[in-house]
């Protein structure tokens, strides 16, 4: 068998080691083996190592490969393997990759240190960084990094410290200005730093310099001491201001160098906050306003009051509910009772903070307080009603939401409050979609998007895009919904910083991906939403992605993990009003009961979905009512199933909703067939003709499964077989285990062969039989998925996947993935041991 010999740090090899390697190359040259030498800085190579490399270049074929830093995906795979079960959250990977810059050794050491010292914590399926612990560094790394700077001369050390303080790229003139060094000496110092690998030179004619690695910057910064760092920041701020640097750049150094009570630094922070807010980047603006607040000691200083005012308005958007609540409460206490309009404004801001944190009852109370103060109408009353509309969307029946929007729009029109009207129209579009008028909602959402973009109204734009995606989901256009929510999430998180909006967009995107049958995307997007919601306090959305992730886990047969996820969602929903999320939760409980084979529980849960949909007048939930019909059939209650299916069919016929008509048509077909009604055949054909009206493969495949089974019940085996075969193939590729197994059983009943191979290999129960998990990993690997993709699907680490694969290779007597894929393709992987 071919052999690969790897010698790491070969540049440090001594003479004896080099002699052994040279002998192997000379005497085993005809054997199938490859020598790989890990080689760092050629200048540091030992003489014997250099001589060995020269000999190899002369006598053999040598290929030089420069290893680049790990990219984001590779770094995430390494971190996942080090963490074990569970996945690294995006925020954890951003922190680690920013600090380690793709160096695998640094990543390994940092993750091991974080695990050993509780600097990371497991939350649900993800590992998150512990707040305040993201600058800790393993002592062995810090010692090694400090050793690299120990022998620097005075000027080189000084230049390195200035580059550390600057944080960004610095040109030669600026370095000359802050160091006061002569140009030749400064150039020599920079060359020495570059040769030591501490500083990188970038650019051409106007070269700029930056510390080469983030961890070097961290170590040097800690060595400098607080007093010296402050002095350097002040001096650098003065030079940058004179050079006309951006307001945020100057402010960052003034704040870093400030002592408490530094009014000039506070004013600079406020100016930077206003600049960031004008550029619509809320997290940056909130950070600057918070800095200004900390610097001003006089509680009555106008600078401090201005910072409080802005924090009360925008802190919720940046996920700093704590700062916003503190600011609005202090401002409310300072505002006299007779200043009714200003107090109404603060009540509105308080309502926003309560909504984002998921406290809908207190949000509604705050709105009512504000409306009482703004009883004369005006723009503030319209804005208050827009906040009430958000609460209503989460908690009230659809008709009541529409009425609140109507009131708000009338007040906004009278006051000429165009911004409030745009927001209210966005909520109107969402309410219309849930009320069954999805096409009208889509048109209204499109209008609001265009007008909000022209007016620069960020929130109205976000609400309208979200409403449009909701309407697309209700229509069955899951692909459009997933794409628009991916774009909105990126915009809200990266460009604007409305973090609760990013969490909602990812949550709806995950839901759309689930219905498309892209379970990998559904899980990844839902986990991203969950992490954003936890990190930024957007607790009103948190149950939604948790429920979606539970549905993915249930579909893959991970019932224990799905149960844990739903239990967490239930706790969150009991703490806060869940609104339409309640229906999604009950649907998931029904699905989980079906996965367990508990038909009575499934019927009970699906009845709750149906009752909830009727009480809210919610047609998104109506599309989830069809499973009740199928659960009743599985429970042996065909008459009840037919009655429910006919009620649903009546509702579906009165609304132009392709998804609802398709799912209800399949349920009605099954119920008619179970009751021996020959009308099942015609209903089946009408339903099958509609499968192209819904995006993705999953929903049509589930419909074909239901209709195919109904055809079998009706005695139409010839019609059932192709439907079941097509459904089984799609469900196998998607990973819907229970539904795929049902299709396979039905095919076997009529003597047809399922698409997925299921032939035997070692007998189940023998020592060579694959375990259930090994079989699961083997099947996924046989489709060509990478270990990382398999780990994501099964919520296990990449290292665990590789361990399973090694056991699979041994039991199946294959020598790697290529043979495994071939083995799976010809159906000889067998069944798992039971």
Task: Considering the chains and any ligands shown, give keywords for the structure.
42 helices; single chain; mainly alpha; 8 strands; about 850 residues; about 70% helix; three-stranded antiparallel sheet; three-stranded mixed sheet; about 5% strand
Descriptive account of the structure:
With 834 residues, this protein is mainly alpha-helical. Among the domains are: 3-59, no CATH class; 72-136; 316-411; 542-624, no CATH class; 633-751; 772-825, Winged helix-like DNA-binding domain superfamily/Winged helix DNA-binding domain (Arc Repressor Mutant, subunit A). The protein has 42 helices and 8 strands. The strands form 3 sheets. A 3-stranded mixed β-sheet has the order 3-5-4. A 3-stranded antiparallel β-sheet has the order 6-8-7. The protein has a two-stranded parallel ribbon with strand order 1-2. A hairpin with a 5-residue loop joins β7 and β8 (208-211). It is flat and about 95 Å long. It starts with a strand and ends in a 9-residue tail after the last helix.
């Amino acid at each position: 068998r071919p052999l690969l010999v790897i010698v790491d740090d070969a540049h440090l090899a001594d003479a004896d080691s080099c002699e052994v390697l040279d002998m192997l190359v000379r005497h085993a040259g005809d054997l199938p083996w490859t020598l790989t030498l890990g080689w760092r800085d050629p200048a540091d190579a030992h003489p014997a190592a250099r001589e060995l490399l020269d000999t190899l270049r002369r006598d053999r074929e040598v290929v030089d490969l420069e290893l680049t830093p790990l990219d984001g995906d590779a770094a995430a795979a390494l971190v996942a393997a080090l963490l074990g079960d569970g996945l690294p959250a995006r925020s954890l990977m951003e922190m680690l990759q920013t600090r380690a810059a793709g160096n695998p050794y640094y990543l390994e050491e940092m993750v091991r240190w974080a695990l050993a010292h509780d600097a990371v914590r497991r939350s649900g399926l993800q590992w998150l960084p512990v707040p305040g612990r993201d600058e800790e560094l393993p002592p062995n790394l810090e010692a090694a990094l400090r050793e690299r700077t120990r022998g620097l001369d005075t000027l080189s050390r000084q230049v390195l410290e200035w580059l550390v303080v600057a944080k960004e790229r610095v040109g030669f003139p600026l370095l000359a200005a802050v160091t006061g060094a002569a140009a030749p000496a400064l150039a020599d110092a920079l060359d020495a730093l570059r040769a030591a690998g501490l500083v990188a030179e970038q650019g051409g004619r106007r070269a700029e310099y930056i510390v080469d690695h983030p961890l070097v910057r961290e170590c040097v910064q800690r060595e400098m001491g607080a007093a010296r760092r402050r002095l350097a920041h002040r001096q650098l701020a003065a030079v940058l201001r004179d050079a006309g640097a951006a307001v945020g750049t100057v402010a960052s150094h003034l704040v870093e160098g400030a002592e408490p009570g530094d009014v000039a630094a506070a004013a600079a922070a406020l100016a930077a906050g206003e600049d960031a807010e004008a550029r619509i980047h809320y997290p940056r603006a909130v950070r600057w306003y918070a800095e200004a607040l900390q610097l001003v000691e006089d509680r009555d200083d106008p600078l401090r009051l201005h910072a409080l005012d802005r924090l009360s308005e925008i802190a919720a958007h940046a996920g700093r509910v704590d700062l916003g609540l503190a600011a609005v409460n202090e401002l409310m206490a300072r505002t006299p009772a007779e200043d009714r309009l200003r107090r109404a404004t603060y009540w509105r801001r308080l309502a926003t903070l309560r909504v984002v944190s998921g406290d809908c009852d207190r949000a509604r109370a705050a709105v009512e307080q504000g409306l009482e103060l703004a009883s004369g109408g005006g723009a503030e009353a319209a804005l208050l009603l827009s906040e009430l509309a958000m609460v209503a969307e989460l908690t009230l029946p659809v008709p009541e939401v529409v009425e609140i929007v109507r009131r708000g729009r009338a007040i906004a029109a009278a006051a000429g409050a165009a911004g409030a009207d745009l927001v209210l129209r966005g909520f109107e579009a969402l309410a219309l979609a849930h009320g069954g008028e999805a096409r009208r909602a889509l048109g209204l959402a499109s209008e609001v998007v265009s007008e909000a973009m022209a007016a620069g109204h960020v929130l109205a734009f976000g609400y309208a895009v979200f409403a449009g995606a909701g309407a697309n989901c209700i229509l069955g256009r899951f692909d459009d919904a997933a794409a628009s929510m991916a774009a909105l999430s990126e915009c809200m998180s990266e460009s604007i910083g409305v973090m609760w909006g990013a969490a909602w967009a990812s949550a709806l995107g995950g839901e759309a991906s689930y219905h498309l049958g892209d379970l990998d995307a559904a899980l990844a997007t839902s986990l991203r939403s969950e992490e954003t919601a936890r990190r930024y306090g957007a607790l009103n959305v948190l149950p939604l992605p948790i429920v979606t992730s539970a549905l993915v886990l249930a579909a893959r047969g991970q019932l224990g993990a799905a149960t844990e996820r739903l239990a967490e969602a239930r706790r969150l929903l009991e703490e806060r009003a869940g609104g339409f999320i309640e229906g999604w939760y009950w649907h998931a409980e029904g699905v989980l009961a079906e996965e367990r084979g508990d038909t009575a529980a499934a019927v009970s849960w699906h009845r709750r979905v149906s009752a909830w949909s009727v009480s809210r007048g919610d047609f998104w939930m109506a599309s989830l009512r069809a499973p009740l019909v199928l659960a009743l059939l599985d429970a042996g209650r065909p008459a009840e199933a037919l009655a429910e299916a006919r009620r649903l069919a009546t509702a579906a016929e009165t609304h132009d909703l392709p998804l609802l008509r398709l799912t209800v048509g399949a349920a009605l077909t099954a119920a008619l067939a179970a009751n021996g009604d020959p009308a099942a055949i015609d209903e089946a054909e009408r339903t099958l003709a509609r499968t192209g009206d819904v995006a993705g493969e999953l929903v049509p495949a589930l419909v074909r499964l239901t209709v195919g089974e109904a055809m079998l019940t009706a005695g139409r085996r010839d019609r059932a077989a192709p439907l079941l075969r097509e459904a089984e193939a799609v469900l196998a590729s998607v990973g819907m285990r229970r539904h795929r197994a049902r299709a396979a059983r039905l095919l076997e009943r009529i003597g047809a062969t399922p698409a997925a191979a299921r032939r035997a290999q070692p007998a189940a129960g023998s020592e060579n039989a694959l375990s259930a998990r090994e079989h699961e990993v083997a099947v996924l690997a046989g489709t060509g998925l990478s270990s990382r993709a398999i780990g994501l699907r099964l919520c296990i680490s990449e290292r665990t996947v590789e361990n399973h694969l090694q056991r699979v290779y041994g039991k199946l007597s294959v020598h790697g993935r290529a043979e495994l894929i071939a083995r799976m393709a010809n159906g000889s992987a067998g069944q798992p041991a039971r």
